[in-house]
Amino acid sequence: MKKIALITGAKGGIGSAISSQLVKDGYRVIATHSAGSQESAQEWFDANNFNTDQVRLFELDVKDTDQCSERLCGLLEEEGTIDVVINNAGITRDGTFKKMSASDWKEVIDTNLNSLFNITQPLFGHMCEKGAGRIVNISSVNGLKGQFGQTNYSAAKAGMIGFSKALAAEGAKSGVTVNVVAPGYTATPMVSAMNTEVLESIKAQIPMKRLATPEEIAMSVSYLLSDAGAYITGETLSVNGGLYMH
Ligand code: NDP
């Protein structure tokens, strides 16, 4: 029987690489996408030649507490179990703090941080009862170092790390591990499409002088889910080419 992994924002740049890696690792992937993006989700599914045993598309607004609770409890009943949760969905609404609107603050905190409550809470109890589970939260180098123009994003991404350590402490005796992968700048379609000059100046600041590939982030997640990662919990794995060392 395949293990079942739920990943939020599964068709995004990094989410897509994680989904493909987990399919390769033999998981059945529950690939969540945002409300109203069924068509592009289906296109993504088709373009990757997934079949319905490998990947199930699942619409979910990670900001909506009630919807997540209701739909994830239903999913658990339908699938029988969830072995792995990858909280990957995320957004940016950048701006210096003086100019930041309350809605840009709230939208980022809701999507990037409150989503951890919304997604994880309906599934964590089941994992503890089962005595096994793996949770990986996708944070960011900018949550560790703080980034100019990203008070909302850095706060949310740092919050994910505190959440993960606290939940790791709660899950440990029940065989549930909770870890963080903190990517540096990653060559997703959106980042790669940035103005060449800006991109070059970013690369110049990275000791390895290049961006991460989405596949490198996905392999780090895969490692934490593997037998090699069984005794790792509450940890933050930086995958940033040396951009920030903590
Ligand atoms: P993308 O924008 O490509 O993907 C983000 C995904 O989040 C999208 O697939 C989107 O779903 C989903 N999403 C956004 N809002 C919601 C919502 N309300 N409900 C459900 N899903 C939602 O970003 P990346 O792949 O680049 O980023 C993935 C994660 O990695 C993020 O958390 C990001 O902060 C983090 N990260 C990225 C870095 C980078 O350089 N790219 C660096 C460090 C961290 P849909 O497509 O269905 O709308």
From TrEMBL:
Q: Name one GO cellular component term.
A: cytoplasm
CDD domains annotated for this entry?
BKR_SDR_c
BP-aspect Gene Ontology terms: monocarboxylic acid metabolic process; poly-hydroxybutyrate biosynthetic process
Q: What class of enzyme is it?
A: oxidoreductase
Which InterPro entries does this one have? Answer: Acetoacetyl-CoA_reductase (IPR011283), KR_dom (IPR057326), NAD(P)-bd_dom_sf (IPR036291), Sc_DH/Rdtase_CS (IPR020904), SDR (IPR050259), SDR_fam (IPR002347)
The reply on keyword Oxidoreductase is yes
One GO MF term, please?
Answer: acetoacetyl-CoA reductase activity
Report the SMART domains cross-referenced here.
PKS_KR
Which Gene3D superfamilies is this protein grouped with? NAD(P)-binding Rossmann-like Domain (3.40.50.720)
Q: What are the alphabetically sorted keywords of the record?
A: Oxidoreductase
Q: What is its EC number?
A: 1.1.1.36
Residue span(s) of domain Ketoreductase = 3-186
Report the Pfam families cross-referenced here.
adh_short
Name the protein family.
Belongs to the short-chain dehydrogenases/reductases (SDR) family.
Q: NCBIfam families, per this entry? A: AcAcCoA_reduct (TIGR01829), PRK12824.1 (NF009464), PRK12826.1-2 (NF009466)
The name under which this protein is listed is Acetoacetyl-CoA reductase
Q: Which organism is it from?
A: Vibrio caribbeanicus ATCC BAA-2122
